[in-house]
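Help!! Second protein's tokens look totally different from the first
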Amino acid sequence: MEDLSQKLRQYIKIGTPAERRIAKYFSEHLNELPFETASSVADRLELSPMTVGRFLRSLGYHGLDGIKVHLKENAPSLSSQLPNILEQLQKDASEGHPLATQIAEQVEMLQHIYNLAGQPQWHDAVATILSSSNVFITSHPSLAGIGRYFRDRLTFARDQVLFLDGANGSYIELFGEPSDDSLLVVIDSLGFVTSRLLARSARRAGCKVLLVTGQFTEWAHEFANVTLSLPPQRANSRENLSAIMALLEYLAISVAHAAGETAEMRTRRIEELQGIFAQAPLR
């Protein structure tokens, strides 16, 4: 990459007027070149495709595809770019760029979850999910899609995972035959007024409770065996949706990792079954 950048700087200084224009464009738009063609570059610079082609050959490439391959093979790793990316993001956010502010908040949220994943309660949550005979998941109806997705992710690691939408009003699946080995995962949210009652009732019925909730839920210590706290909610957001989704996704990844070979075998079996049934013809 440095060699290419050096060649472009050289052409910017001593090239012909057309070469200087092309070199300057390439230098300022390296990240966009994979989406360009020689013709599109020529159109942007009001030059002929032949002129762009000659310039590429002078750089040692057979057309723009050659430079695309070079960029792909020599792209710096994300880890090496991360400090500069974060510095630019913080700068843009401090200057009031709305998108930068939103992304900076997402980075902070992921940092919170990463720190949480190193805490004892995270490991307790993973171990409890894997060791319980049944895992029930429930949420407010508005988060049912997230709850069902979490259920689907957990099924790659273990059997007997069920999402409870509460549509029948009774939660009979959980309370019909309560078991000391069952686990209820409560995805708490502002609108889920039943979450506290469900957690308390599950504990009294002998179930363990894993509560995913905000940092200042006062009743968490009383009715939950394990609590995973979400990052602070932003003032302009009614529901901490992105944080809930991220936490549950990484929790499911941790469960699958802890399950090891069992999860690998289940994943292969699920893929086999999907191959049989997913595209089954109608009879």
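Here's the second one for comparison:
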Amino acid sequence: MTRIETAFENLKQQNKKALIPYVMAGDPSPDSFVGLMHDLVTHGADMIEVGLPFSDPMADGPTVALAGERALAGGTSIHQALQMVKKFRETDSTTPVILMGYLNPIEIIGYDEFIRLCDDCGVDGVLVVDLPPAESGDFVQRLAQHNMNKIFLLSPTTLPERRKQVMTHCGGYIYYVSLKGVTGSASLDTAAVGEQVQAIKKETDLPICVGFGIRDGQSAAAIGKHADGVIVGSELVKNFTGLDSNSSADEISAAQAKIMDKMDELRQALDQLA
């Protein structure tokens, strides 16, 4: 079993829901990022999605897109992001880490080299936003050979054929995009999301985790009643707005404290569902 699969099995036995924060590698400072990852675990993260900075993030709303710009301005490349994960792995061998990014930088590195680097650094899953299952070739199998899962997205507008392909090729968990739009979009119809999640569960045994639009404990709990986990990104990342790699340690620490307050709120709300 992969670390992701093991984590979900453990959560199921405890009747708990997964809390999966998303943060951008190197944001706001490369030096502070590994510490941020450890703090997220301390405050209830069951897994961590790590964004790979990219100059043209088509699925990201303004908050996450700006996080990518800050990371790039601070000099964070994919290679450096992977080294941050490797540093995290030196003292945390259990928390799953999922990379979320775009295809262009991976193609530049090369699929085989990218997989080798991920394996060496302790990555557990890869979500490539613009790599659909029908075009993923043997990428899924090659990741599986290194005990990693390929995560795919489903959305309210996913066509039946694409949906079936996702069910076939996805591993670890399915990332259900809760609404039409980009990360950080405002409106979230929890009842409609619940209906969609229940429909997906009839077609697959994979855990379903919901992202986009979850902002607080109330919305996390409403989604958690139906899903196996919630993914929260923009609501956390927004606390780094205005900071960069030149910001003082105190400024970064204060922003991280706000993120951990939100993590505590989300964790408490999900745990009340048990």
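Reply: Different proteins will give different token patterns, so don't panic. The mean pLDDT is 93.
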